[in-house]
Every structure is written in C-alpha cells, then in structure tokens.
Amino acid sequence: MRIVVTILAVAALASVPLWLRDPYLLNALITTGIFVIGAMSLNLLLGFTGQLSLGHIAFFGIGAYVSALTSLGFDAGLPGGFRLVHTPWPPVVGFVLAILAAGLCGYFVGLLSFRVRGAYFVIVTISFAEVVRLVALNWVELTQGPLALTNIPSIALPLPGFGELTLRTKMHNYYLVLVVALIAYLLIARLVRSHFGRAMRGLMENETLAVSVGIDVTRTLTIAAVISAAIAGAAGSLYAHYIRIIDPEVFAFINTVTMVIMVISGGKGSLAGPVVGGLIFGLLPVALRPVMAPEAQWIAYGGVLIAILFVLPRGIVPSLAQRFARRRGTTALAPVALTETGAKEPA
Amino acid sequence: MTARSVAMTIDQVAVRFGGLVAISDMSFTVGEGEIVSLIGPNGAGKTTAFNVMTGFLTPSAGHVTYQGTTLTGLKPHEIADLGLIRTFQRTSVFPNDTVYDNLLIGLHRQGRVRLLDAILGLPGARASERKLRQRASELIEWVGLERRAHDLAGSLSYGEQRLVGVALALAAEPSMLLLDEPVSGMNASETHRFVELIRSIRDRGITILLVEHDMPMVMTVSDRIVVLNYGRIIAEGTPDVIRNDPAVIEAYLGHGAARA
Ligand SMILES: Nc1ncnc2c1ncn2[C@@H]1O[C@H](COP(=O)(O)OP(=O)(O)O)[C@@H](O)[C@H]1O
Ligand SMILES: [Mg+2]
C-alpha cells in the first residue's frame, strides 16, 4: 500500500519535465526540490531525535561553497605568507567533498553541543551558521565576499565510453535533483527503521530509560547530526551548480526558517512530511507572485502555516495518516508524538 | 550465608544533596546469583543508592565496584554495557511505541550492527534483525503480555507497564538486575506472578538487588536483606534475622507502616 503510493508519487514527479514546458515553473520545481532535500535532512534531526538545528542552512551553504570552490579553483593568502592554491577539479568531486565537509562540520557541532541537550544545540547551531556566514563574507580572497562566486560550472556526469554529460538544461537538473532526493529519502528511511533509528526514537521518547538499556546519547545524536549535515551539504552542492552563483546571503537565517516551516507543516518525524511541506512552501511563492509583493508573502506563509497546523496539528502527513487509519478502524497509530518526554530524572 | 563470589561492592558511599544527607557511609556487598533486598521507609535513600550504582548520580564519597570494575565516572550506558541494568520506580516505558517496539529498543545491546550494513540491508544486519524480533516475541511471552504486544505501551495499565519495564530491562541481557519497587501498583495475583518471575530470573543466573515495600514478598523471595533508615544501614541479614531485629522493628516495621 505504502510502496504503491511511493512508486506512483515518484512516477508522477519523473513525468513532470515531459509535459511541463514552462521554464519558470521547472526552475521553481528544481530549487524547491533542492530545498526539500535540505528539509529532509533537517527532519532527520528535528523529527527523529527532537533536536532543533536552527543553523541548518550552514551545512547547506558549506556544501555550496566547498563544491563551488573545488570546481572553480582558488588562490588565497594565509597568515605567515603561505598561499592556498587549488586548480579546478570536476564538479562531481566537488559534490563528494561538499558531503564530506558538511558531515565533518556536523560532527564538530554535535560534539560541541550534545553533552548537554535542549537549548544548547539550538544556540550552537545558530552561532555556527553566523560564524560561517561571516567567514564567507570577509574572506574575500577565497570567497569573493559579497561579490559572490560566479560562473560555477554545471555538474558533468562521467559516462564511461561516451565522455561525459554536462547537466546544463533544466530537464537535466530536474532529474539530477530528483535522483539525489530519492537517494536521500531512501537513506533516511532505512536509517530510521534500523536498529540505529530505534535508538534515536528511544532517546526522544524517554532518554533516562534509553540510556539505562545501554543507548549512548552523545554517539547516537552525533551520528544523526553527521548524516543530516552531509545530506544538507549535498543539497547545497546541487544548488551551487544549478544556480551557478553563490554569495554569503545563502547563509541567511530566513533560509533555515523556510526549512523548519517545510518540516513542521508537512509533519516532523514522518518520512514524507518534509516532501509534502517542502513542495507547498517551495511553490507557494510561484502562486503568490502575481498577487502579492515579496514582502507581503511572508505574512501569507505565516497564515498558511497556521491554517495547516490548526486543521492538522501534527502536520499534514501524520495527521492525514491518523485520520485515514481511524476511518479504517485501525488504532495502532501513535497519539501526538514528541510531546511525551517521559521522566527526565530517575525517581 | 554460603561462600560465593562477590558481584557488587558498595564501599562507604555517601550522597549529599546540598545540606541533605541522602546516604551516609553505606557499605554492603551482593554475591553472584544472590537475591538481596534493600528496604527502608520512604526517603531512606534506596532509589538514590540505585542512581549511584547505575551512574545517574555521582556519590559525594565512596565508590561502587561491579565485577571488578569501579563504576566511578562511568556514564549510565557504559554501566549498562557491563550488564548492570535497572528498572525505575516511576513507570518508565517508551509510551508512543508498541510493547513489541519497546522491547526492540530495549534489545539495543544485542542488535549492534555496523550502520552501513543496516542502511544497505546487508545479510548480516538482516539476520541480526530477525534474531531481535524473535527475542522480542520471546520476552513478551515470558512476561505474559502477548495480547498487548501491538498496543502502545503508554495505553497499558499501570501493572502492565511495570511488566514492560522489567521485560525491557531483561532485553538488555543483565548479569545483575536492580528492581525499584517492581510490584507497587500491582494487584495480588500480579504480585504472585511477579515473584515467580523473579525466581526464574534468578534461576538464569542473574543477580538481583530488589527495593520493595511489600514485606511478605521481600521475606519470601530474598536471600538476604539490607535495611536502610535515614540513609544509614541499620541491619543486614537473612529474612529470619531481619524479622526479629529490634532495631528494624523499631525503625521500620514498628511504626505500623508496612507501606511506609
Ligand atoms: N535529586 C535530588 N535532589 C535533592 N534531594 C533528593 C534528590 N533525590 C532524592 N532526594 C532526597 O533524598 C532522600 C532519599 O530519597 P530516595 O532515595 O528517593 O528515597 P527512597 O527511594 O528510599 O524512598 C529523600 O529525602 C529525597 O527527598
Ligand atoms: Mg524510591
């Protein structure tokens, strides 16, 4: 049943470039797809461990910059008269390095913040994003600062025996994003259904009990942060090579907020939630553009978000799934998750 | 007392919360395979002692040794890895998961496979998963909750949740089990069943330290009893010795408070 829905959804998404000829809409779908990948990575932390990364865009932006710089090359001065010189490498290498670099940052942020939980992680992630933004803004020799990195090459897929395929058209990029999104989705699905996913779930529901049966909090949360950050880095890399220009504005707080809205509206802790929420809030600007000034759009977003959560308090996917199950008389569905933290202190 | 090797040594442990002395100078040992009960009026420091033994609290003085390892400075999950597993006085389950999934989470220690193997669904990870599922079913059957296996743990009755708590602890494959008031909230027949359960746990070679207010139960099931009052050990011995100890009768039973 679930697998049929998934296959139909994928087939529908895959068919879009075959009948949608409007480049503006296709462009909106590609950037939305990239942000959906970011939202899925955020959901891995927020929905499955309960940790809110309010600087999540940092991992996305680091992926974008690492990938762009790898494929553009650079020559930047270091203190002490040294120079950091790099000649351009293919963008696919940049994509891989983006994933690794973002994952590594996720590791350090996790290590710094998961000894103590709660607001700590939120604060560390916000600060981290701000620090990275300032570096991107001020290390002009490396990043061009506010002048932006331009002419970032498109991703080229090596095809053994046929040379390579440069993904220049919108249709190419659409399929590239779709494939990466699918891989990210399957990865997260496997992860949360595994033994490791149960450890995350246990920690979120009742941390005291979870550690008492041998679950290592710091390790579990750090691994989740690494994977989440790495996926966000992959999304950032796709963004850089599609838009082909990147500046420090990518680190803007509002971009994190957008991802959080996508996750919450679609339903945190559900696999399809960020996809549904992401499509709605990614495409909403397209629908609103003819009728509203860009500044007013944020107010509309707020309105839409409140309306969704008013009707479907757990987010679209979990709330609809619950109603569906109730109608069919199934009861084995969780009541509102995430609110029950269990006993914090052993009594 | 028969000569058996010592599983756990509590050596001059003291716990202070600000000015309050919750435990002072506590020393006793638990032998391998023994059932020892720790009793005393409410607030005597029994749960605090459990928290020290399982790494949830650092003692102000003294230390605990389990099978030769000093537990000072170890985190709860590291102590669990030594096979020292506890249950909680307040009901403690994963409320939004089914009983079955609760046990799968509890089987964490048995299910460690490489993350990559799990993501790729490699045969090793699959086989491990099959074994966990079978083990979870066995444990559910063992505590008699088959009919509740697919209900959310949070929707179970109090007594049933306590059974889930014990099954969860057993899922972690303890070599020693610390039970904090396991039968509180259970009715007479549930309690009776539970005594049988404790005996069968011990018959598997698992050492048990029990905190319990139900005196008839403590007297039938224990090999030895340690009595605590105001954080201090006031008596220690077999059930017969404890029953007739004037200090115990005075401090504990004497106040007419079997449910103190
Ligand atoms: N975290 C804590 N902070 C302050 N006081 C505590 C804490 N935990 C327990 N106490 C106090 O320590 C004493 C012993 O409590 P406890 O170990 O729970 O007793 P018991 O389990 O024997 O009923 C009580 O006076 C209790 O109020
Ligand atoms: Mg207690």
Structure report:
The complex is a heterodimer of chains A (347) and B (260). Helices cover 67% and strands 5% of the residues of chain A. Chain A has 347 residues and is mostly helical. Chain A has a domain at 20-252. In chain A, strands 1-2 form a two-stranded antiparallel ribbon. In chain A, a hairpin with a 3-residue loop joins strand 3 and strand 4 (163-166). In chain A, helix 2 (23-46) runs antiparallel to helix 10 (217-243), helix 2 packs across helix 11 and helix 7 packs across helix 8 (195-205). Chain A is globular and about 65 Å long. With 260 residues, chain B is of the alpha/beta class. Chain B folds into 2 domains: 6-93 and 158-259, Rossmann fold; 95-155, no CATH class. In chain B, the strands form 2 sheets. In chain B, strands 6-7-8-3-9-10 form a 6-stranded mixed beta sheet, sandwiched between helices. Chain B has a 4-stranded antiparallel beta sheet with strand order 2-1-4-5, with helices on one face. In chain B, helix 7 links the parallel strand 7 (176-180) and strand 8 (207-211). Mean pLDDT of chain B is 90; it is low at 256-260. The chains are: A mainly alpha (347), B alpha/beta (260). The interface between A and B is large, with 32 and 48 residues. The structure holds adenosine-5'-diphosphate and magnesium ion (MG). Adenosine-5'-diphosphate (ADP) binds next to strand 2 and helix 1 of chain B.
Secondary structure layout plus pairing:
The complex is a heterodimer of chains A (347) and B (260).
Chain A: H1 2-19, H2 23-46, H3 57-72, E1 74-77, E2 83-86, H4 91-113, H5 119-138, H6 140-143, E3 156-159, E4 163-166, H7 170-193, H8 195-205, H9 207-212, H10 217-243, H11 253-266, H12 273-288, H13 294-311, H14 316-327
Antiparallel strand pairs in A: 1-2, 3-4
Chain B: E1 6-17, E2 20-31, E3 35-39, H1 46-53, E4 61-66, E5 69-70, H2 76-81, E6 84-86, H3 99-106, H4 115-120, H5 123-142, H6 158-171, E7 176-180, H7 188-203, E8 207-211, H8 215-221, E9 224-229, E10 232-237, H9 239-243, H10 246-251
Parallel strand pairs in B: 3-8, 3-9, 6-7, 7-8
Antiparallel strand pairs in B: 1-2, 1-4, 4-5, 9-10
Helix pairs in contact in B: 3-5, 3-6, 5-6
Bound molecules: adenosine-5'-diphosphate and magnesium ion.
Magnesium ion is lined by residues 46-47, 89 of chain B.
